[in-house]
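Notes from hallway chat w/ T.B., transcribed later so I don't forget. T.B. wanted the structure written out for a chain they're using in a teaching module, and asked if we could keep both sequence and structure tokens in one place. Agreed to drop them here.
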Amino acid sequence: RGGITPQSDRSMVAAYADGGLNWSGPLPGRPDDLAGVAVSYTRFGRDFQESTGPDGVATAETTLELTYRAQMTRWLALQADLQFLFNPAVNPSSGTRETATILGLRAELTF
């Protein structure tokens, strides 16, 4: 999936693309589980870059996402999610661009 704008001078995001793969039943004996990997790329528009100053925002950033959804019972599933955000905006405390790591856990109840 992707998108691009011909008016990158006015848009916060000038171009975006993402894609991913899911694997059903990745572990023996767990046919209802799901593992996934995805990548996204965002290129920021020129005016947005200029409005944040020379050290504010990167020209682009890339995200790598890994996820695993475990079907615990027929009514409960837990999904862990790990994301790495490469070249994000500047960290104000250090003044540098640092890869961000995001960890999440979601619970799904079906009733």
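Follow-up for T.B.: The helical segments are 46-51. Might be a good example for the class.
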